[in-house]
Design brief:
By secondary structure, the chain is α+β, with helices and mostly antiparallel strands. It has helices spanning 92-105, 111-122, and strands at 2-4, 13-19, 22-30, 35-49, 56-70, 82-84, 89-91. It has one domain. The chain has a five-stranded mixed β-sheet with strand order 2-3-4-5-6. Strand 3 (22-30) and strand 4 (35-49) form a beta hairpin. The chain starts with a strand and ends with a helix. It binds zinc ion. The site of zinc ion has 8 residues, from helix 2.
Length: 123
């Protein structure tokens, strides 16, 4: 889903899309000429692999997502909550894919391996 910065106004525009079982819905609200606030929610079930045994399993996702989308180079390079779209077109699939990648890159343990951890602690 691609939306041009020029098409947005200060009136929030709602959107919804899904990718790999994860749904992103919310609103886009233009703040200034160059920036748009994305205020949304990530939900769904994402398939990840266990970092210990490699088995695939689903983790349920339900978390808010607030990002600033900018069509100019950001001033504060340390702010990771800003995504740049320098051609003036926001690509929401790209935003959702980045979120999915960051969830996937976190450590995940399946129920069995989490249980092993607890068992070892008890000994
Ligand atoms: Zn496991």
């Amino acid at each position: 889903m691609q939306i041009a910065f020029d098409k947005l106004s200060s009136t929030p525009k709602s959107f919804e899309l899904s990718l790999s079982g994860v749904n992103l819905s919310g609103t886009l609200n233009k703040q200034h000429h160059n920036t748009v606030m994305l205020d949304g929610v990530l939900s769904g079930v994402l398939e990840v692999s266990c970092d210990r045994c490699g088995v695939l399993f689903g983790v349920s996702i339900d978390q808010p997502l607030k990002l600033e989308l900018s069509q100019s180079t950001r001033q504060n390079k340390d702010n990771l909550d800003i995504i740049e779209f320098l051609d003036g077109v926001m690509d929401l699939e790209y935003v959702l894919q980045s979120e999915i990648d960051s969830i996937k890159s976190a450590y995940h343990y399946c129920e069995k391996c989490e249980g092993v951890d607890n068992f070892e602690v008890e000994i």
